């Protein structure tokens, strides 16, 4: 497995679980995943969410992507530090990809439209068959 496998798996998984820290308390929630490419794993949130403050205070996160099957399925965990992305073209793209955001008054220049990515970190895949094997970490980013 390599980083291309991570990109493919993430893009085939519409919902992931993202863990942040709120002080010393972990917080995890399901998120509609946006996309992954060779530059990282991209997410979009609203600035009014508590998660935004958590990410500003501590950029370390872990995302879990899970694809079920007849038994336990396959899981990919991605850990790293997020980077906020302030790119008008990406903001226009998220509005095209997620038109429901316009119903909330979001525009590409709205300060509440937040994009972030995990650009550097490590990932690994888990299945029941590999449960007791050492993790095969896939490093990505600089």
Automatic annotation (TrEMBL):
PANTHER family: PROTEIN BLI-3 (PTHR34818). Residues 8-95 form the Pyridoxamine 5'-phosphate oxidase N-terminal domain. It comes from the Archaea. It comes from Methanobacterium paludis (strain DSM 25820 / JCM 18151 / SWAN1). This is Pyridoxamine 5'-phosphate oxidase-related FMN-binding protein. InterPro entries: Pyridox_Oxase_N, Split_barrel_FMN-bd, Stress-Dev_Protein.
């Amino acid at each position: 497995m390599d980083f291309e496998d991570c990109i493919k798996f993430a893009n085939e998984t519409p919902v992931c679980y993202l863990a942040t820290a709120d002080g010393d308390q972990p917080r995890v929630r399901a998120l509609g995943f946006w996309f992954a490419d060779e530059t990282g794993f991209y997410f979009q949130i609203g600035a009014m969410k508590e998660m935004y403050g958590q990410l500003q205070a501590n950029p370390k996160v872990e995302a879990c992507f899970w694809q079920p099957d007849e038994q336990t399925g396959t899981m990919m965990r991605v850990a790293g530090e997020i980077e906020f992305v302030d790119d008008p073209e990406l903001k226009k793209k998220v509005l095209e990809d997620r038109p429901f955001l316009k119903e909330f008054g979001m525009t590409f220049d709205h300060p509440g439209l937040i994009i972030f990515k995990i650009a550097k970190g490590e990932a690994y895949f888990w299945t029941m068959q590999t449960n007791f094997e050492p993790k095969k970490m896939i490093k990505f980013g600089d």
